[in-house]
Design a protein that fits this description.
The complex is a heterodimer of chains A (about 375) and B (about 290). With about 375 residues, chain A is α+β, with helices and mostly antiparallel strands. Chain A has helices at about 65-75, 115-125, 130-145, 160-170, 190-205, 215-225, 240-245, 250-255, 350; strands at about 25-35, 40-50, 55-60, 80-85, 90, 100-105, 175-180, 210-215, 225-230, 235-240, 260-270, 275-280, 280-285, 295-300, 315-325, 330-335, 340-350, 360-365, 370-375. In chain B, helix 2 packs across helix 13, helix 4 (about 70-105) crosses helix 8 (about 160-185) and helix 10 (about 205-230) runs antiparallel to helix 13.
């Protein structure tokens, strides 16, 4: 993908999302609207997910991601639009007829049942042939490595074990779609990291299409085939993790995923595929399409900033070092503009060592790494 | 209290076998209640038990043998258990959905429901029972309403019938069924029925396999409450039932007040006490059983 098509106009640009127009999308959420007490939580939202894909809904709390999830599961009603799964219209079906599995944030294990009965619950509710229940339950318990706890009461399990029960329980009924509502938020970090990888591998192995709600950008980047970044009931950008990170479509995506240094300014020169932006900190070139006079942000990811004078196809700044904070492998440099405004970047510690406090620090980054985004 | 006893594990390790010998100073806070209960309950109860077991030949079960030798008394016992059982069942059938509605409602609606549930408790039983004698009359409001909407063609005879008794008893004792069920329902995670639905369980399956088993302790507590209250109810059957429907509590009153037969009265009182204790202990056992299973 070239960066040229990134920003098509001055406001609210859409990222290219080929699946958005895929006629044969496996899960199609079309023009879905939901409001509570007159306030739109979701407005005219579209989302298309391919079969076997793992898609994250990433956004701050209150952005509507959990509402969208519950709406797809049929746990709340829909105000407008429709939801299709494998060509079947789900919109008016009750939750128990949708074949959409959910792993809840608190896992919701049935506390009155054993691990075995929890996993068997859906099979029994759907009147599966009784001789198939035990082998199915045992297969899914072994997939989540819980075979040794089969007779344990569900409420006597640790958080990580409860999560595995919830996953096995949801998968045992062979759902057409699996929805996961922040399933790692209650786990400590170490456990979370190993379980993220386990779950990702398991779902890929079984070819399960999954939608995963999270507010944790790292989690979304680690797990997803594609990420839909949500804000205020809309999807700001829907793309693969690398594109989301390297080519954010909107200032919101830029801010929510990763950190950046940014300067507001105006486009003073525009030619095919490149703009020159005049900011209070100087003129910067960026690969983007804007008309002259447009208000934009110029931004750069900190890892793309080098401690060197700018070269041929670079932009650059020269700042004064006011503080150096040693963090082991890396150091944080507090830099100041001539007017005293601060900017901090972190760099490999050994590159920071020769720099003198009070001395000049040259910064450079490639024009191709420069982001120009519309001011919203 | 030493610091170590704050942690039950350390306490158990440090002083095995000494548990229960140490009196918790906070227990002293219960002293006024203990003194009151000794004076108001324990002593009269001892007198009652003594009267029930006392015979001219000394302490024996002769009074009980005499009571159960009379077929009329069996009928009275049956009446008592039947009216208590039916009232409890009616309270459960009406109270469970009400408790669900109460637990699911929010804000002002929930407040209004709770107030309308608890406020009538402040109206005396006598007043309520009298009100029902007016409501249940052949030309009473209930019959007129039923005639008016065309559900019945001729007025029903309700007053002085077991049906009327159950209607009156439900009115008085329903809150004691709803509140324990409600308090358990509140603790049931709303995600559990949702999880069941996403696993393909329809509403009926969800009720019998999720909600009902999880609220069983509340049901048992409510049933025990209402049954022990209705088995000993006196005012309601006294006002809503005729002479032909005698119950044990009425017979106790009659024995003391009319027959002046202290031995008979205390014997029946002890029988009622045994029933109540059996219900309470049985329900506690059942509640513990449901917890152990889980």
């Amino acid at each position: 993908m070239t960066s040229l098509s990134l920003v098509e106009n001055g406001r609210g640009a859409r990222a290219p999302s080929p699946a958005g127009h895929m006629p044969d999308a496996y899960l199609a959420v079309e023009r879905v609207t939901k409001s509570y007490r007159g306030v739109d939580v979701l407005s005219n939202l579209d989302l298309a997910v391919g079969q076997g894909e793992f898609v994250s809904l990433l956004g701050p709390s209150g952005c509507g991601k959990t509402t969208l999830l519950r709406l797809i599961a049929g746990l709340i009603g829909i105000d407008g639009g429709q939801v299709l799964l494998g060509g079947r219209e789900l919109t008016r079906l009750p939750a128990h007829r949708r074949n959409v599995g959910v792993v809840f944030q608190n896992y919701a294990p049935f506390p009155h049942l054993s691990v075995f009965d929890n996993v068997a619950f859906g099979l029994r509710a759907q009147r599966a042939a009784s001789e198939t229940i035990r082998p199915t339950v045992e297969r899914f318990l072994s997939l989540v490595q819980l075979s040794h706890l089969v007779d344990r009461s569900a409420k006597a399990l640790s958080g990580g074990q409860q999560q595995r029960v919830a996953v096995a329980r949801a998968l045992a009924v062979k759902p057409g779609l699996l929805l996961l509502d922040e399933p790692f938020s209650a786990l400590d970090r170490k456990l979370r990291e190993s379980m993220q990888i386990d779950l990702r591998m398991l779902l890929r192995e079984l070819g399960i299409t999954a939608i995963f709600v999270t507010h944790d950008q790292d989690e979304a980047l680690v797990m997803s085939d594609r990420i839909a970044v949500m804000n205020a009931g809309r999807i700001e950008q829907f793309a693969d993790p690398a594109t989301i990170y390297r080519r954010p479509a909107t200032p919101f995506v830029l801010d929510f995923v990763g950190s950046s240094t940014r300067f507001p300014g105006k486009v003073v020169d525009a030619k095919e595929g490149e703009v020159v932006v005049e900011t209070a900190r100087g003129r910067f070139r960026a690969p983007a399409n804007f008309i002259t006079g447009a208000s934009v942000f110029v931004a750069v990811r900190p890892e793309n900033i080098r401690l060197a004078p700018p070269g041929e196809d670079d932009s650059g700044l020269e700042l004064t070092l006011v503080e150096r904070i040693f963090l082991g492998p890396r150091s944080v440099l507090q830099l100041a503009f001539t007017d005293g405004e601060r900017l901090s970047i972190d760099v490999p510690a050994r590159l920071a060592e020769p720099l003198a406090i009070g001395g000049p620090v040259p910064l450079a980054w490639a024009v191709s790494d420069t982001l120009a985004l519309p001011v919203q | 209290m030493s610091k170590a006893t704050l942690d039950p594990h350390t306490a158990a390790v440090a002083r095995p076998g000494h548990r229960g010998f140490k009196i918790d100073p906070t227990a002293a806070l219960a002293l006024p209640a203990v003194l009151y209960l000794v004076a108001a309950y324990a002593i009269p109860l001892a007198i009652l038990l003594f009267a029930a077991f006392r015979t001219p030949e000394g302490l024996s079960l002769a009074n009980f043998a005499g009571f159960f030798a009379d077929a009329y008394n069996w009928q009275v016992t049956y009446n008592t258990l039947w009216s208590a059982g039916m009232s409890t069942l009616a309270c459960l059938v009406i109270g469970y959905p009400t408790a669900v509605a109460l637990a699911r409602s929010r804000g002002v609606v929930q407040m209004a429901l709770l107030v309308s549930l608890i406020l009538p408790l402040s109206v005396g039983v006598v007043v309520k029972a009298f009100a029902w004698t007016i409501m249940l009359r052949t030309n009473g409001i209930l019959n007129q309403a039923l005639l008016g909407i065309g559900l019945i063609d001729a007025p029903l005879r309700l007053l002085f019938t077991p049906t009327g008794l159950v209607i009156g008893a439900v009115n008085v004792f329903l809150p004691f069924m709803i509140l324990p069920i409600y308090s358990v329902l509140r603790l049931v995670d709303a995600r559990l029925p949702e999880a069941a639905a996403t696993l393909g369980a329809g509403p009926v399956y969800r009720f019998f396999h999720v909600l009902l088993p999880l609220t069983l302790p509340g049901i048992i507590a409510g049933v025990a409450f209402v049954f022990s209250l209705t088995v000993s109810m006196y005012v309601v059957p006294n006002l809503l039932m005729g002479e032909q429907f005698m119950t044990l509590p009425r017979l106790v009153a009659r024995s003391y007040l009319y027959f002046r037969n202290e031995a008979l009265g205390s014997t029946i009182a002890v029988i009622l006490l045994v029933i109540a204790v059996a219900v309470v202990m049985g329900s506690q056992y059942l509640i513990r059983l449901t917890r152990h299973e889980t």
